[in-house]
Write a structure and sequence with these properties.
Elements: E1 2-6, H1 12-21, E2 26-30, E3 43-46, E4 72-75, H2 77-84, E5 89-92, E6 98-106, E7 121-125, E8 128-132, E9 137-143, E10 150-153, E11 158-161, H3 173-184, H4 193-208, E12 212-217, H5 221-234, E13 238-244, H6 252-262, E14 267-271, H7 273-280, H8 286-306, E15 311-315, H9 320-323, H10 327-331, E16 353-355, H11 363-372, H12 377-380, H13 400-419, E17 428-442, E18 445-458, E19 466-467, H14 472-485, E20 489-494
Parallel strand pairs: 1-2, 1-3, 3-4, 4-11, 12-13, 12-15, 13-14, 15-16, 18-20
Antiparallel strand pairs: 5-8, 6-7, 6-9, 9-10, 10-11, 17-18, 18-19
Helix pairs in contact: 4-5, 4-11, 5-11, 7-8, 13-14
The chain binds xanthosine-5'-monophosphate.
Residues 290, 338, 340, 384, 386-388, 428, 462, 499, 503-505 line the site of xanthosine-5'-monophosphate.
């Protein structure tokens, strides 16, 4: 496996995803973490960083167990690190070193550039640059502006590049990572969904034995894939609970429950809609809504878990991005924008051991694993849906009537996206019900009714997002259907805000 030492770059996770796409297992650890054993890794990658090596507080870990002993690739800060602290010179860059550049010189005898040719586009993003290499370093690629775009330390399997191979705009980036990991470090490309399923099922069997496990299904991809893996490992000792909080999409509870049963899962559907609505009565503040919904869920789930005799494990669909320790988190506090962190969401009165079958994999890998388990493509391709559901898409207080209204609007929107074959190209879509009324006219009558917002975004992980340029004809048809079909709504607007500064949800 591969160790990615993180110096805090925004795109460190992308390095890991590219490596995984090559079917090679890797882990990200903060450069200053003591929680891993270097000896377990066959190769190491140093990430980029917002720091400058020239500042006193720059990350400066001890690489004595790594450099010269294992194949090592420094990226951006990682490259400058290998120069600055080893006798070379890094200084402020005088020319522009952001964005696209092309390799103008390549040392074709060097395995790092196998199958990569002059002209290859690379993506730069640094304000420091390598001015002078230490003596035993050899330049292996340059761009027009940057002589030392890539180098090798002679006599070592140490390589470094100042550009970012992990980003999409470095067109041969994945090839370069493959060259390093496969051609140079000799790693096997055997981390596949099938091998993941095999080893995970075996591990789960071993870990759980004949004890019982309870798992909350949400209808989403993660909990479903986690459930199917556990089902394969322990069968009927897995007890799934699917709670209807009354804030799901139209018909979702019945249809998803049906689907789960068809998949052979040992699942119990619990309709707690009334309890949730009751707890939400009169609450307008978004964070208080989230808390009320979260607490109601814990109560319902706990009651159900108590009905399972001798259950000792709680399974969760936690995935790798929720687990990766971030450099900024160890260096200082980061602001919570919305209280939706599922990690550590375990109520302690349940006192169960936790099992998380997906904690080592990324979302795209969860889908690949799901596919190899034979889970329906439609289920795997579902848009993300927030835990508090329509509760945070109804601005202001929540009533059964408003939920019903929004369910209808949302249904028309999503069915339309599917019919127009737009659903799969959108990352997430949904509708919000606004707490405003506006004047309209229907027939000869003046109306004074609600306004709804349609939102469709593109994104890769929900951290940043942009609104989708849906066809006008589609919006026109959808708006007509909503206004004519949903009583109480007389106005439809489309949200054209990106994240940041807006968020995806309105609450
Ligand atoms: P925002 O609105 O923060 O949303 O841009 C980013 C992603 O997170 C989802 N989201 C939530 N998911 N509980 C969840 O499980 C929540 O409270 C919550 N709030 C937002 C949102 O749907 C989007 O995919």
């Amino acid at each position: 496996k591969v160790l990615i030492l993180d110096f805090g770059s925004q795109v460190t996770q992308l390095i890991a995803r590219r490596v995984r796409e090559l079917n090679i297992y890797c882990e990200i650890h903060p450069y200053n973490s003591k929680k891993f054993d270097v000896n377990e890794f066959q190769a190491v990658i140093l990430s980029g960083s917002p720091h400058s090596v020239r500042n006193g507080d720059a990350p400066h870990p001890d690489l004595s167990e790594i450099k010269g002993k294992k194949p090592l690739l420094g990226i951006c800060y990682g490259a400058q690190y290998l120069v600055h602290f080893f006798g070379g010179k890094v200084g402020q860059s005088s020319s522009r070193e952001y964005g696209r550049a092309n390799l103008s010189y390549i040392d074709h005898s060097n395995a790092l550039f196998d199958n990569i040719n002059e002209g290859s586009q690379v993506w730069m993003s640094h304000s420091d640059t390598i001015i002078e290499l230490p003596k035993n370093y050899k330049v292996i690629a340059s761009t027009h502006d940057i002589d030392n775009a890539a180098f090798q330390i002679l006599g070592e399997q140490t390589y470094a590049i100042q550009f970012h191979p992990e980003v999409y705009h470095s067109t041969d980036g994945k090839q370069l990572l493959e060259n390093f990991l496969v051609h140079i470090a000799g790693l096997e490309q055997d981390w596949t969904p099938t091998s993941f399923v095999e080893t995970t099922v075996a591990e789960l069997k071993d870990k759980i034995g004949d004890e019982k496990v309870v798992l909350g299904l949400s209808g989403g991809v993660d909990s479903t894939v986690a459930a199917v893996l556990l089902d394969k490992a322990i069968g009927k000792n897995l007890y799934c609970i699917f709670v209807n909080n009354g804030l799901l999409r139209k018909n979702e509870f019945e249809s998803v429950l049906d689907q789960y049963k068809h998949m052979g899962l040992n699942v119990k559907g619990v309709d707690a809609s009334e309890k949730f609505l009751d707890k939400l009565k009169g609450i307008e503040d978004p964070e208080l809504k989230r808390k009320a919904i979260g607490n109601a869920f814990i109560e319902v789930f706990d009651d159900e878990a108590h009905l399972i005799e001798d259950v000792t494990w709680l399974a969760q669909g936690t995935i790798y991005p929720d687990v990766i320790e971030s450099v900024s988190a160890t260096g200082g506090p980061s602001a919570t924008i919305k209280s939706h962190h599922n990690v550590g969401g375990l109520p302690d009165f349940m006192k169960l051991k936790v099992v998380e079958p997906l904690r080592t994999i990324f979302k795209d890998e969860v889908r690949r694993v799901g596919r190899s388990l034979g889970i329906d493509d439609e289920l795997l391709g579902r848009h993300p849906f927030p835990g508090p559901g329509l509760g945070i898409r109804i601005l202001g207080d929540i009533t059964a009537e408003k939920v019903k209204m929004l369910q209808e609007v949302d249904h028309i929107f999503l069915e339309g996206l599917k019919r127009w074959k737009l659903y799969d190209s959108v990352w997430q879509a949904g509708a919000m019900l606004l707490p405003v009324q506006s004047v309209g006219v229907m027939g000869d009558e003046r109306t004074y009714e609600k306004a709804v917002v349609l939102r469709a975004v593109s994104s890769t992980d929900g951290m940043t997002a942009d609104w989708v340029d849906l066809p006008y004809k589609f919006l026109q048809e959808t708006s007509n259907k909503i206004i004519n079909g949903v009583k109480g709504v007389n106005r439809v607007v489309y949200d054209i805000s990106s994240k940041p500064p807006a968020t995806i949800e309105w609450e």
